Amino acid sequence: MKILLTGATGYIGKRILPSLVYSGHHVVCCVRDKNRFTYPKAFEQQVEVVEADFLDKNSLQSIPKDIDGAYYLVHSMSTSEDFSELEFYSAKNFRTYLNTSQVKHIIYLGGIINNQVLSKHLLSRRAVEDELAKGKYHFTALRAGIIIGSGSASFEIIRDLVEKLPLMIAPKWLATKCQPIAIRNVISFLSFSLFNPKTYDQHFDIGGPDILTYKEMLLGYAANRGLKRKIWIVPVMTPRLSSYWLFFVTSTSYKLAVSLVDSMKVEVVCKPNTLAEELGIVTMDYQTALSKAFTKIDSNEVISSWKDSLISGRFDHGISEFINVPQFGCMIDRRTIPVENEEKCLEKIWQIGGDTGWYYANWLWKLRGFLDKLSGGVGLRRGRTHVHTINNGDAVDFWRVLYAQREEKRLLLYAEMKVPGDAWLEFKIDNHTLIQTATFRPKGLWGRIYWYTVLPFHGALFGGMIRKLAS
After folding, report:
1. 10, 151 in Cβ contact below 8 A?
2. Rounded Cα distance, 466 and 339, in Å
3. Alpha-carbon distance 36 to 26, whole Å?
């Protein structure tokens, strides 16, 4: 069967792709920017990639009309102020176009919406679901709450809070109940529901066997990790303070923190259904889901992470627009150094950032990250998903990977910290010479003042870094 996979660069999309390929399907991956999407070479015969922006009706013409099934996993615009309208029109354009195709079944992953009072985020999910359900095809909506798995936003936030804070004075929404589900179970529900007549034209809540408060989830994580933690809930913490609390302690962005706090005030418990039994799925309890997540982390087998999505930073463009680094009107710091062992040097470059650090004066990098975080930026908290591998679109601390081509021995990063301009950092090895180039395109007078203010630090940072990389 030919399956259309939207949101293929997202957390869920990257997880379900292998499942679809191993099931023998031909998968058409629909992305907004091909340069952000990578997949295993072993999948080449079964994967096709098309570019489309669902807000642009004409761009949907790239989607083949002979598809049999489709997954709608588009949630990447949820941090825009008008995200509800954008998500609705994306769903409408998608539904209108697919009505002209031969698609038989569409599956949508949304949020649990059983509460009478819903957050703006969950209201948008329901509006998308209602719009997609109007199509001429069979439609299935799967509704999930908190997803627990290596790299999921929920798991990483819980991890940050518990690992960093032995004592917590927390907002009252920590008493809200939810029904977490393991990422493995989510993928099973998505996979087994496809072309299953028992799921046609219905919606199902999916969750694990445990109904827990957010406080119980935090303490359960602590127990799993052998940590002693104390949590006190206070009723005086406003939504704004709660958002700042999440922003400063965890790796989430402030805009995403606001959306999360808004949604966490709403109880997300599943309405009973028999879908798991019908599909033969045994759902994992919370503790098992945590243990499975850490098994993947410890073995460096994290397939996808929410931190690599564009909503984790301030980058809101297609990376193709920034791959060609400008020269005119830019400040440039270019350094070269001989390299004896190109492969060893390349390995260092490919491991840069995250737990590895930046090889020289890491305390200055951490200070820059702290200052960026104070000003509302991403700081260094995102780290990186993999230690040894790096792909286009990945997040590396406060950088975004624009181009990572090991065969060409070239890595290009774009700065997502708050700066009065645009900044690139490029590493390239050519004929046993490492070329390291920092480029800054200032915006106005403040951009130029910023460059000359930090220029004295560049000599130490960039000079020391290139020497360590080449040594």
Report:
1. no
2. 10
3. 20
